[in-house]
Amino acid sequence: MTKAPITVAYGDGIGPEIMRATLHVLQSAGAQLDIECYEIGEKVYLSGNSSGIEPALWESLHRTKVFLKGPITTPQGGGFKSLNVTMRRALGLYANIRPTIAYHPFVATKHPQMDVVIIRENEEDVYAGIEHRQSHDIVSCTKLISRSGSERIIRYAFEYARAHDRKKVSCFTKDNILKMTDGLFHQVFQEIAPQYPDLEHEHWIVDIGAALLADTPEIFDVIVLPNLYGDILSDVAAQIAGSVGLAGSSNIGANAAMFEAVHGSAPRLANQNIANPSALLLGGVLMLLHLGQFEVAQKVHNAWLRTLEDGIHTADIFNPTVSQEKVGTQEFASAVIDRLGEEPIQLKAVRYKKEKIVSHQPIPFHHSQEKKELVGADVFLQFNQSLEDLIIALECCIDTNDGMTLEMIDNRGMIVWPQKRPGIFLSDSFRARFRIPTTTVQKVTHHQVINLLERLSSQGLEFLNVELLYNFDGKPGFTQGQGA
Ligand code: NAD
Question: Is the C-beta atom of 266 inside 6 A of ligand 1?
Fold first, then answer.
């Protein structure tokens, strides 16, 4: 078998120790890897590179398209970009897959039957990191969910479930509140699910879904989530399965893939040979599967299960009632190597077949035939005087010729005019909605919105931000204020 080129970065904290242990096991098992090694993380950040990634690593990744990455430490303080987010975005790694499995009775867990795969959308949501300080009081964050991004991750989840003989795909969103963003994710889930009649599907509001996951994880199989919920709940799932030190993860894109441990760099454990290398090792197993080296992946995984079962445990999972021997990082790796070719007796051995590779072609930009019409604008304004003064100033800016009327004013999403809310706390940022009446067929032009802004400015009103209001096929592409 020809060697597969891969890029490796040891990372920070416990990274170098667990990466050494991982590579030792993979190579001892016969993995065919042509390794290119690069520095990443703290040292690169502190050398003045705000991304934490040296240019040579990018060149290597464009050659190898496969990255085995140790955990990194993000230096505290401003100016440093999250390396993980940059990596996922730059390589288009849209799917984050985290299998979380209980290894009862060898690793303590309250959920002995747990076997859940979390599939997290990895590129969108609030992780676009679009944040602004709007006023002295208010900061904002833009949450972005695309139809094409949702289709791609949800289809991936169903394809993954099918390829891995799973039975059910669950989707968690908060679409009772976030009707448009999470609503779109949920809607796409409902559209795609019937194309997989062999799989069950269900949707939970994320709060009760998360509570059920923490309480009875055995009722779930594959869970697909938008980015933020996926980030939080995949750590919860890894921890309740036994330990974050046992969960590996893959980040899959159409043209590249990255494999890592779920946990971070655990700096307090660094350089003591006590960290558990299992999560990164299982990340390595996922990488071997991605590379098509199924037999080696199976050999490593089963030897690792057998090591757990033989009670050879690192300190984080050591439990005198089931453990036989407390070992360090490198000794654990040696114990796995000693068991290569063996299988677990009590735990279920893994069988990796040449599975159908999950389809992840990028979905082309959604060419919608919907008719898009501009019908108004939401203008965010900083205003420190009374609400009555604001109403008077805004009403002076209405021009009957353009047809837009002042429909409402809200404060942090709650309508404060025309409905009155006596006694409500008002922050210094208001939203004024100017819109043509829904009964008219008249439309608004960009020029009319610009003229409106000029009138606001000449009234001495400080506008902060403008969101244009569009109808799509006559239906509003925006939500109502709260309390309408
Ligand atoms: P962490 O995951 O490093 O540690 C959380 C807890 O789990 C600690 O108690 C730690 O001792 C324990 N732990 C983690 N990995 C372990 C292992 N392999 N063996 C035994 N115990 C283990 O999270 P943190 O302390 O919040 O973050 C430390 C640093 O890691 C931060 O700089 C953070 O930004 C970074 N981080 C990086 C990644 C990544 O590179 N993918 C992910 C998360 C956090």
Answer: yes
